Amino acid sequence: MDMSYLLSLGILGHRSLLWYAGQGTRAAAIHPIHPHMEQGDNRKTSADSVVPIQQSQLKEWEDLQMNLRSQLQEHDDVGWAIDGLSKIGGLDIGFEDGTNRATAVLVVCEFQGRQLKLVYEDSVDVDMALPYTSGFLFVREIPAYEMLLQRLRGSAPHLEPDAYLVDGSGLFHPRQCGSASHLGIVHNLRTIGVAKKLLCFEDFDSEQGQRVEEQVLPNLGDSVPLVGRSGFTYGFAVRTSAARAKGPQDSMRRLYVSVGHRFSHTTARNVVLKCCNMDGGSYIPEPIRLADLTGRAIERAWKQIHTTSRPKTRQVIMDVSNLLDDKQRKTLLGILDEVGAESCALLSSISPESIKRKQATKDELFLPFQEMHPDVTVLELRAALRMEKPWAVDLRKASLCHQQAGRAMRGL
Predict the structure, then answer these.
(1) Please, what is the Cα angle at 251 between 137 and 293, to 5 degrees?
(2) Tell me, what DSSP letter sits at residue 38?
(3) Quick check: 295 and 92 in contact, CB under 8 A?
(4) Which residue has the higher pLDDT, 266 or 29?
(5) What are phi and psi for residue 21, nearest 5 degrees?
(6) Strand, coil or helix: 103
(7) What's the pLDDT tens digit per position in 281-294?
(8) Cα separation of 103 and 127, whole Å?
(9) Whole-angstrom Cα distance, residue 155 to residue 411?
(10) Which parts form a coiled-coil structure per UniProt (predicted)?
(11) Count of Cβ atoms closer than 10 Å to residue 113 Cβ
(12) In the chain, what are the domains?
């Protein structure tokens, strides 16, 4: 995700990225303006890369959020009901420890009875050489989410979900416009913010937060409203797991759910519960859980080789995750084993004539991938192909040469 793409989005605050255009991959974090932590801000870049930001820029971002807040819809669409929810998306960004790299992931799940089935996944590499401050996570998150949305609409428009769960906040935000609301308003999407950590700010300070945290939520679906000192209800703390309590702290396993856009408080809470494992599994809603797992799988594959590989090898790992299903990854790995190529050999050095597979396999899988990444080494490609994604083992993808995604996705 390069600077030219970010600037083309037209989001008001992104003019500040011009300040960092010459920084390369160096992070450009900025000092938080509030002592309380926002969801996700424990993953900031290192202190030696902190760059101060002008107050005028913060004012522009505040004005943008306030303007968007005035357009936020805090009620369900007329005629829409939760029973009509067929497909739901999950958006998450996972950060690589100690670096300014991150992986943004979008998954789409489809309801089949009470179960959710993964039907789509996509990820993009994010360079965190972006401004950061508490309350303005949209600067880091929205560009990646917009790219993922654009790619979904370009490659699989029939899988666009009815609603999106965003790992972060919606109304539960100092200006009542977190990333979930920002994305929903700008693109007119139904969105819900799902935060794992309690956010504190002026109207909802630590005292208010402590009152919420002291509330025991022993049963699945139990909730307590997040009410600020002003009396405004920002959302709910919700118990989302039916797992049997092993101690008093188990009831603290809760999520902080807030309206993003085009939902009422009650429906937002019920949609999140509908997406959680009702049989006692993870307390994280399935779309966000799968997006998080996918990002972690990509980062694990990168960690195996990052000390000896070029930065562009991350794109190889992204393409393996995005474009190849479990069967295709195993087939390509089997081809590498059969030809006996050295670990340092480039993929371009493998002759198609040396591959004892059906011509269709070579034409639809090996040759397109070889053309896409001729300079990847066998060692690097093996690490990517050995990526373990058991939650996606049943997800089937088109042959590489026929995917609408492929080059179109990578060209954005």
Answers:
(1) 45
(2) P
(3) yes
(4) 266
(5) -60, -25
(6) strand
(7) 789 999 999 999 99
(8) 9
(9) 12
(10) none
(11) 6
(12) 3-290 (3.30.2170.10), 308-411 (no CATH)
Contact 225, 240 (CB under 8 A): no
DSSP 8-class letter at 197? S
Beta-strand relationship, 101-112 and 87-95 = antiparallel
What is the pLDDT at residue 96?
75
DSSP labels, 218-251? -STT-EEEEE-TTS-EEEEEEE---PPPSSGGGG
**Cα 91 from chain centroid?**
4
Q: What sign does the CA torsion over 372, 298, 169, 85 have?
A: positive
379 token code pair: 């060692």
Q: Which amino acid is at 151?
A: R
Tokens 């560009």 -> residue: 143
C-alpha 90/C-alpha 121 separation (Å) is 10
Alpha helices in 115-155 (DSSP H): 138-155
- C-alpha dist (Å) from residue 260 to 84, 99, 238: 19, 30, 16
Residue 235, strand partner residues:
226
How far, in Å, CA of 264 to CA of 269, rounded?
Answer: 9
CB 135 within 8 A of CB 201: yes
Percent of the chain with pLDDT over 70: 80
Q: Is 110 exposed, middle or buried (0-12, 13-18, 19+ CB in 10 A)?
A: middle
Give the distance, in angstroms, between the CA of residue 163 and the centroid of all CA atoms in the same chain: 15
CA 148 to chain centre: 9
Taking the C-alpha atoms of residue 58 and residue 62, their distance in angstroms, rounded to an integer, is: 6
Give the pair of three-digit tokens for residue 169. Answer: 């906040």
Where is pLDDT greater, at 126 or 225? 225
Place of tokens 């050295």: 342
CB 292 within 8 A of CB 106: no
Which residues are within 8 A (CB) of 338 and not within 5 positions of it... i.e. 6 or more apart? 355, 356
Q: Which token pair is 269? A: 């809470």
Per-residue pLDDT band for 278 (boundaries 50, 70, 90) equals low
Burial class (CB in 10 A: 0-12, 13-18, 19+), 179: buried
Please check whether residue 25 is in contact with residue 66, taking contact to mean a CB–CB distance below 8 angstroms: no
Report which of 156, 132, 238 is spatially closest to residue 195, judged by C-alpha positions: 238
